[in-house]
Amino acid sequence: MSKDKTKASTQEHLDIEDITENMVILKGGNVAMIMSTSAVNFDILSEAEQDATIYAYAAFLNSLSFALQIMIRSKKADITSYYQHLETSMREQPNPDLKRQIQKYMEFIQSTVQQKTILDKQFYLIITFSPLELGIRGLKKQPANRNKSKAQVISEARINLFPKRDHIIKQTARLGLTAQQLSTKDLIELFYDIYNPAPTGTQRIILDTASYTAPMVKPAIESPMPAPLSNMGGTSNVPPSPVGAMPMPIQPAAQTIAQPLQPANQQEALKNLQQATASAAQFVSQRQQTIAPSQPVAAPPSTNQTAQQPNPYNETQ
Cα(112)–Cα(82) distance, rounded to whole angstroms? Predict the structure, then answer.
């Protein structure tokens, strides 16, 4: 049995090869672009508005010449912050009638939460690019596409997906919806929340855009920083620990490397101190030489002149 044990990587269990340039690169060579969109409450619309929405949605489906995926995520919503906002508004409201209305609304929300589960729904539109869409040229170059760099894959995906994205944004605007492409950070947070679901809400992770490709994923928490050493006791060359990584211990070798540099630093500091002291002494001596001749002329005559002035009261007497 071999002693070398290969460590399993979390990326081996995922279909995602990389997330970059606001797109998702899959292991099969496909590239996906995800857009988030708003929603419309269809029930509160008038009959004419409902008919217009249905016709616009039908026109949107008929205009599609490519595959489109619609994903709806439903999660339990956390309304604690909203309830606290209502409490603050009720305390700050000077009108007693409005204060009673806010209190009744808070009681209604509390009873609704106890009887039903409040869900937060998010809507996403997904379009994909496959090398097979290039036709015969893509089939002929299919073995070479596996060794193709990510830059070339992203370049071909942009040419194919950007017109589709613009078309979807224009068509959804006719429905009164707002669609926008997810950024790289938003995509990382989305997939992190999918594979690590939270009980309520969406998780906001402390994660660098390059750290998710590491073979062994470390906790995304802030680690305490060690106290820096003083210059007199030696300077450590250990870099600060990044967010989400374990703090690097200070090795004895780093201290031994820094110890030969101490005499040179002390001599340089002493030399700088001597130069500063000499320049300060020279400045003080020059200042004293310039002030010394004018000192007996300025102060004593002013006192003597005031003493020799006659007193008008004595003359009147």
Answer: 14
Alpha-carbon 64 to chain mean position: 35
Integer CA distances (angstroms), 168 to 51, 220, 310, in order? 21, 35, 101
Specify the 3-state DSSP secondary structure of 275: helix
pLDDT, one tens digit per residue, over 217-231 is: 555 544 445 444 444
Cα-Cα-Cα-Cα dihedral of 40, 43, 47, 51, to 10°? 50
The partner residues of 26 in beta bridges, in order of sequence, read 16
**Is the CB of residue 94 less than 8 Å from the CB of residue 122?**
no
Closest by CA to 157, choosing from 311, 2, 308, 17, is 17
Rounded to 5°, the CA angle 116-117-123 comes to: 135
Stated as kind and residue range, the H or E segment containing 285 is helix 261-291
Instruction: Give the Cβ contact number of residue 16 at 10 Å.
Output: 15
Q: Of 128, 144, 155, whose CA–CA distance to 31 is shortest?
A: 128
Domain ranges of the chain: 12-76+120-213, 78-117, 260-289
More confident residue, 49 or 267: 49
